[in-house]
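Sample intake — Transmembrane protein 230
Collected from: Medicago truncatula
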Amino acid sequence: MAYVDHAFSISDEDIMIGTSYTVNNKPPVKEIALAVSLLVFGFLSIIIGSLMAYNHVGGDTAHGLFFAILGMLLFIPGFYYTRIAYYAYKGYKGFSFSNIPPV
């Protein structure tokens, strides 16, 4: 019979037996609201900035491009954290509300 060293093996059963704490996986409301607002305002800024740049509304093309770039800077983190919150809510493996940083 072969010798098996279980000292360095990690399984789900070992983790569940050895811990006595409960995982608090409540959705962080303020953080999710911030992520959704960044997503919405970023999307609107991209659309409005593109229209401003194309139609020369509110100044020259540079103002519209600046507004669109500012919208992209808002949209990217908003989309990222909204996606994490959605996947954590749906229960996808590897996604948790703890992945969203506190405000």
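Post-analysis note: The mean pLDDT is 84.
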